[in-house]
UniProtKB/TrEMBL annotation:
Belongs to the TRIM/RBCC family. The keyword Zinc-finger applies. Residues 60-79 are annotated as: Disordered. The gene is Trim36. This is Tripartite motif-containing 36. Residues 67-77 have a biased composition (Low complexity). Keywords: Coiled coil, Cytoplasm, Cytoskeleton, Metal-binding, Repeat, Ubl conjugation pathway, Zinc, Zinc-finger. GO terms for biological process: acrosome reaction; spindle organization. Residues 404-499 form the Fibronectin type-III domain. Residues 195-237 form the B box-type domain. One of its GO terms (molecular function) is zinc ion binding. Residues 484-709 form the B30.2/SPRY domain. Its main location: cytoplasm. SUPFAM superfamilies: B-box zinc-binding domain (SSF57845), Concanavalin A-like lectins/glucanases (SSF49899), Fibronectin type III (SSF49265), RING/U-box (SSF57850).
Amino acid sequence: MEGDASASPVTIKNIEKELICPACKELFTHPLILPCQHSICHKCVKELLLSVDDSFNDVASDNSNQSSPRLRLPSPSMDKIDRINRPGWKRNSLTPRPTTIPCPGCERDVDLGERGVSGLFRNFTLETIVERYRQAARAATAIMCDLCKPPPQESTKSCMDCSASYCNECFKIYHPWGTVKAQHEYVGPTTNFRPKILMCPEHETERINMYCELCRRPVCHLCKLGGNHSNHRVTTMSSAYKTLKEKLSKDIDFLIGKESQVKSQISELSLLIKETECNGERAKEEALAHFQKLFEILEDRKSSVVKAIDSSKKLRVDKFHTQMEEYQGLLENNGLVGYAQEVLKETDQSCFVQTAKQLHLRIQKATESLKSFRPAAQTSFEDYVVNTTRQTELLGELSFFSSGIDIPEINEEQSKVYNNALINWHHPEKDKADSYVLEYRKINRDEEMMSWNEMEVHNTSKVVSNLESNSHYAFRVRAYKGSICSPCSRELILHTPPAPVFSFLFDEKCGYNNEHLLLNLKRDRVESRAGFNILLAAERIQVGYYTSLDYIIGDVGITKGKHFWACRVEPYSYLVKVGVASSDKLQEWLRSPRDAASPRYEQDSGHDSGSEDACFVSSPPFTLVTIGMKKFFIPKSPTSSNERENRVLPMPASIGIFLDYDKGKVSFYDTDGMKCLYERQVDCSHTMYPAFALMGSGGIQLEEPITAKYLEYEEDV
């Protein structure tokens, strides 16, 4: 196995690029083979699974300190509901866990199956080559004996059966002649020990002895007899070894025979690189020249606009100064009035009349101006506002000449944001684009734009993770055909939820009434069946009869932090309530029999009377809002208008609930744009649960978390 360890170090060093893990960008460490046939470090696979799992559950970061203990209601029986606050309840094993990760090599999602990492083969061949590279890189670094007493001696050989390195003396001691250990396989000093027999990861006691041609992976006889490969075509390991080795040797010989052609093509590529660099610099210079021309035009227009504004300002100010001087002349002992006062001192009648006639006309004119004061000019410069809307749009779309690639269009209806962002777009010439680049950036509150983040995509949709809560993000996409790209699409602005998304399902064990409610197998959808049971009891229904609500809650509780979740209420629903309720209130609801004959019992008011208009609890232990008949009803409040037109809103397509446990506040959102519809204080002294109630026909669908969906990939031959 290690017979080629002495191969030329130069040859080994020349293949360094093939020995780098595409995930961590370091030399492979215990590489595993993914279903797509790419290799990745064992620790990198675990980290990818962990990151996907965190994204699936949308756990808050350690810095925000918003993670919360999750509790489960223990039992549907009333005597066990008292333990509703007891910590440690976890969701059962039926809850799906993510087994799909994005391959860093081909950037496609691959499914690891039920066994996850345990079902992957270790790439011992690649591991051996990496070890040869390490030895070539550290030729001067000796491998020390593992059994020597301090100080250890330099090892001279390694035992593949013992997985240890020995110096000459220790090897003789631990592998004496005439014993079984003397028959162990030993090689030169190494740190890479691999098993002599490859065992099946699904049946750990069985050795690999066959090769599945459909899945292109080694299997054991149990995999063929009754496992996942029972209906697949398999061949013997020796036959697969011979066939694949012949193909690989033939292809390598072909490439070696074309060495001169490869060198010629490398020289051609070097020339193309230089030509590309020269053409790129020329294109950059031309682009800068065009922008400089635009700058000059803008500078010229700026000078003209500023000059026109200054001229108008000077003209208006001069008029105001002239008018102000005229009015100053009306003051006593000043200007016109002062002159008239001097004329009045004239005693000669002829001279006085001669002067006073014209003066009197001026005085009359000044008197009239006092009665109807009008400024000599306007102070507003509304006519001088520069309208750059159209030019800004044109400059925003400034790009290269049409390259023959149509601009992609983001589909706003199919794009949404929840725990992650899902961006879908349409490209009229889909077959002409090799790939797409999705760009996104955060928009700060002061409208300051951050730098664009780029993601290369090979289809027309992408899930974007790790977005900050309660933030606006801009998305745009452009298409690529070879090295030519299209202009960017119009930007789509999405608002992320105000807190990390809270993951839960409907609880079918506590308070769930299976006679009235129908829960699907995934436990993310519930429907109210208002029909047969009510008809059977129809003779008891009289005037004032009040049908009771059927409650259902989430299977996970909240004891700290900020959390957000969303649901969709079916348009045909008659009456649905959504919100939060504390554990002690749930005990009261699920224990106390409700007086179904009382028309004055309102289950979400917290008291059994019609005095809701006169009494408001500032921080009740629950808050539920009503949705029905395609309307959203805002609860009555002592601090806001309770007029009908102010309390009845159109029903949102999706309703979000935001609970800030630490501040004791719950808010309800229209998730389209994350607009807050209603908020109030709530008593969070106990564990809080997502709560729902239905009456009559209705349905509630929990919003599904956005995760990277599995993509079909073509397996390499």
